[in-house]
Write a structure and sequence with these properties.
17 helices, about 35% helix, 9-stranded mixed beta sheet, Rossmann fold, alpha/beta, 2 domains, 6-stranded parallel beta sheet
């Protein structure tokens, strides 16, 4: 079986969030199980892409209304990824340093999808399944099933994975001419709330719809940014499959980004070495429990509450807090200001640093994830893998992966997203940390939890086979 993943992100070539991690690792595990999986994404203007050795395998032209854009499909010549990667090179629209947040994102995403399908219809050997990820490739199921120009692809099953339903790719009907000619009697497949909604379109047209955790699929029935009714209507073709993580990358014994590697036998000394480096680097006290946050500073992650959570905690508890992330500028500035009041027990790194994130996983004592929305969450799985205790809200994939220590589990859970609930959980964390024997036992327990892609990859293969 041959499966093509279409995505704007794929670690390490392009990553903004969890989508990049998934597309950069799941295909490798699928290939190991005998499912020939390939990935196609844009050719970005960044150092990692520039370093690739590629060969041109196809060239053609995209038409967006009256505008015409030449593109080239490049095949990556490398076995390091564990799967074949193709890149769409399009100078005017896709050859950009960033993945998102351009004024012409609608044009960029449509051009990317059209390039993929123009290439595929000209291939002698076509994929058995086209797997689309989020709204950026959400028009593909419609184009394949409704556009005569792609009738050669009409029998190829399409799968949509929703990584985050908050983002849907809406655009107005004045850009309808970007989409190749189709029967206008079927225009309702594009429409949702009087605009073109690529995510809604994909939910309607894809053969199967998956989300990145079972709980998130349930939650979308009642909270999906306007798509609740549609998802309820299409529920028979929907399934939640929990994401996994790549244990070859997230491996404490071999991770090259850590200060000191460790395994089961030296987990305590290894984590102490990484914690010491963090505390020395950020002016913190190594004897205090270290609470950390890693992620985007956005509303969905509960980041707007972080400044007040930090202040409430530091005014009442003898702990350290370290924040790594970027996003909302107001939140960033408020987080910086916390250091003025607590220079010896708090610090922040505004931005993103992959190496630093690995050291935090390897050295901090607790990871804060006060998310309002968390479709799956990978950070808590990385934390468990490294012996870091997660403090999470019971939502989405966090609910599926973290069991509270009060229920004989291995994390600390709360139900609401507010300062007091998170503070109370941190306070529980301090009490947990003070019982060092119990705390170390839990550390040694959680590093053995298997959240690799093996189980999830098998479920995806079952899904693909059911479409034949």
């Amino acid at each position: 079986m041959k499966v093509l993943y279409t995505s704007l992100e794929c670690y390490p070539l392009a990553k903004v969030g969890g989508l990049g991690d998934v597309v950069g690792s799941l295909p490798k595990y699928l290939n190991e199980l005998g499912c020939n999986t390939e990935v196609i994404l844009p050719y970005y203007d960044n150092d990692k892409v520039h370093q690739l050795v590629c060969e041109d395998v196809f060239s053609e032209t995209i038409n967006l209304g009256i505008h015409h854009y030449d593109f080239t499909i490049k095949k990556v010549i490398s076995s390091e990824f564990g799967f074949q990667i193709y890149l769409v090179y399009q100078k005017e629209l896709l050859f950009r340093p960033n993945v998102y947040s351009y004024d012409d994102d609608t044009e960029r995403f449509i051009a990317f999808q059209l390039a993929i399908l123009i290439w595929l219809r000209n291939q002698e050997i076509k994929p058995d399944v086209i797997h689309c990820h989020d709204h950026h490739t959400g028009l593909i199921p419609f184009l394949v099933s409704q556009v005569p120009a792609f009738q050669e692809l009409i029998d190829i099953p399409t799968v949509l994975t929703i990584h985050n339903a908050q983002y849907q790719g809406w655009f107005s009907y004045d850009k309808l001419d970007y989409i190749p000619q189709f029967d206008l009697h079927n225009i309702g497949l594009l429409d949702w709330d009087q605009c073109i909604n690529p995510l809604a379109t994909a939910i309607k047209c894809a053969w199967r719809v998956t989300t990145v955790s079972p709980s998130y699929m349930e939650e979308l029935q009642s909270q999906a940014n306007g798509l609740e009714g549609l998802l309820h209507h299409e529920k028979d073709k929907c399934v939640g499959i929990l994401n996994g993580i790549d244990h070859t990358i997230w491996n404490t014994e071999t991770d090259p980004m850590m200060i000191k590697n460790y395994g089961d036998k030296n987990i305590v000394s290894g984590r102490k070495a990484n914690k010491k480096w963090l505390c020395d680097e950020f002016g913190l006290d190594v004897e205090k429990p270290l609470f950390a946050f890693i992620g985007r500073l956005v509303y969905e992650k509960g980041a707007d509450l972080l400044p007040d959570i930090c202040l409430e905690t530091l005014r009442n508890l003898d702990v350290n807090i370290l924040i790594l992330g970027s996003g909302d500028h107001q939140v960033e500035n408020r987080l910086r200001s916390v250091k003025e009041e607590f220079p010896d027990s708090y610090n922040t790194y505004i931005g993103y640093d992959e190496k630093l994130s690995h050291i935090i996983y390897a050295g901090a004592d607790f990871l804060l994830m006060p998310s309002r929305v968390e479709p799956c969450g990978l950070n808590q799985m990385y934390a468990l893998r490294y012996g870091l205790i997660p403090i999470v809200r019971r939502i989405g994939g966090l609910k599926d992966t973290i069991i509270d220590i009060g229920d004989d589990g291995f994390g600390i859970c709360h139900d609401q997203v507010n300062v007091q609930d998170v503070y109370n959980s941190i306070k529980r964390g301090v009490e947990f940390y003070e019982n060092q024997k119990y705390y170390r036992e839990k550390q040694k327990e959680i590093v053995k939890i298997d959240h690799s892609w093996n189980n999830s990859a098998s479920k995806y293969i079952e899904l693909y086979k059911s479409l034949k």
